[in-house]
Amino acid sequence: MTLDDLTKTSGEWLRGNGPESDIVMCSRIRLARNLAEFPFTNRSSRAEKGEIESHFKSALAASRLEMDYFDVNVLPPLDRQFLVERQIISSELAKGEGPRGVAISPHENAAIMVNEEDHLRIQYMLSGFRLHEVWDEINNIDDQLEENLAFAYNPSLGYLTACPTNVGTGIRVGVMLHLPGLVQDKSIDKVFRALQKINLAVRGLYGEGSQAFGDFYQISNQQTLGKSEPELIRILTDVVPQVLLYERQARQRLVTERRQHLHDQVSRAYGVLKTAQTISSEETMLLLSSVRMGINLGLIDDVSIATVNELFIQTQPAFLQKIRGSELDVEDRNVARATYLRSRLANGRMAPEP
Amino acid sequence: MICQRCKNEASVHLTERVGGKRKEIHLCSACAKKSGLGLPESPPNLALDAVVQDLILTHVGELVGELAELACPECGIKYMEFRAGGRLGCPQDYRIFGRGLLPVIQRVHGATRHVGKVARQRPGAIHRLRLRSQLRDAIAREDYEEAARLRDQLRLKDIHA
Ligand SMILES: [Zn+2]
Ligand SMILES: [Zn+2]
């Protein structure tokens, strides 16, 4: 597998199937692990980082895991950005220095970053609300790597991590939710405050510090110590259905109280995406979000959720430049984005008024 | 004032005394929260000065003295460097800085004991961490004979790892 192959496929987690996939884009778990015999990444020498990388590569080769390793250190900046857009690596890894990389499974469900803040950051993603399955998968990956790696661990504090905020289980259990109803309803802040009270973190699609766009939000645990992995997962599986209920109620209110306005908004969004000659990334996200909700409410019936999910990723700058095979400035990207959207959404028609 | 860790506006300002010298820390609320220095979830009308005073007492007061001087023999990181940067240097730091870290851990997680997945016992790993730190020292003082000897020892153990 090469990075160029990835431009022709899309991650399994974008398929738009699985339970509650109208709202739950994907379920994701991340585990932080470190090798006991090395200093943490920020204190490791270049040579030690190289050794950490080769220890990992031999453990991966000895396992039954089918993953390809990419040396991020030698990737051009555009390819690094491409991996960030696909949610495979963090921008911290992209911007880092020295030996580092990522192992990726064929359908992009699994990714293991090497020499990020921790030596290993294992992540597993599935579309829909399937945290238990995700846990089984990632737990298995962790077990297989541990066959040949000595992880930093002590019985009273658990897995030891570079930042004490991840110590213990080293687990981050998250779901990515599409919440356009709560955003339009202006009740989203209320929901977030309630989640923060029970120590859940809310982040925008591109993670910490960035503005949420496309009405996507990730909800995840913050505390990693003092509760077992299944207990931490249970907090999410208990709370998320409540958020889904609020989102469905908000959408229902939009449908019953503002049907014409809603249908107009969705139709215009779809129309612009299908016909624009130049369009910014921000506007694209906003409009795709409307279209995605329109599909789920039965207002649009000739484009699939999977296509819209993919477009959120495939209208990002690095993807557009990779399929063009050249670097593009902002203006050129806006034109390339519009062209790509028109080609993907061609032949569409609006659903008849019920 | 700009956050020392990112480019956001700093909202948490702390002064710590390290061995008689004053050291100022400026962080945005997100970075402060990350390093366990964030403002507690408190009623918003609580005077900020009181909150900061409380933070200094709980987090800095106790540190003046031995903890502030403490450095890890394995990776060399000083406790105050961890406090400024928010990242530890090696797995042994949890033991070496335990007294300073446990209150932070309690505050962040509401717990200080792991109850989740149990890792395999690998008793040799700590010894190898020590060998590696000796290797770093040997290279630093250009003692290449000793460095070669340590490398051989590490290689030997690789086979049995
Ligand atoms: Zn900051
Ligand atoms: Zn250390």
UniProtKB/TrEMBL annotation, chain A:
UniProt keyword Nucleotide-binding present: yes
Enzyme Commission number: 2.7.14.1
Gene3D superfamilies found in the cross-reference section: Glutamine synthetase/guanido kinase, catalytic domain (3.30.590.10)
Alphabetized UniProt keyword annotations: ATP-binding, Kinase, Nucleotide-binding, Transferase
Domain of life: Bacteria
EC class (word): transferase
GO cellular component terms, A-Z: extracellular space
GO biological process, one term: phosphocreatine biosynthetic process
PROSITE patterns the UniProt entry points to: PHOSPHAGEN_KINASE, PHOSPHAGEN_KINASE_C
List of residues binding ATP: 26-30, 121, 172-176, 203-208
Catalysed transformations (reactions): L-arginyl-[protein] + ATP = N(omega)-phospho-L-arginyl-[protein] + ADP + H(+)
GO MF entries: ATP binding; creatine kinase activity; protein arginine kinase activity
Reported function: Catalyzes the specific phosphorylation of arginine residues in proteins.
Protein name: Protein-arginine kinase
Gene that encodes it: mcsB
UniProtKB/TrEMBL annotation, chain B:
The name this protein goes by in its record: UvrB/uvrC motif protein
Pfam families: UVR
Domain UVR as annotated: residue spans: 130-155
InterPro entries in UniProt: UVR_dom (IPR001943), YacH (IPR025542)
BP GO terms, sorted: stress response to cadmium ion; stress response to copper ion
Any one Gene Ontology molecular-function term assigned to this protein's record: cadmium ion binding
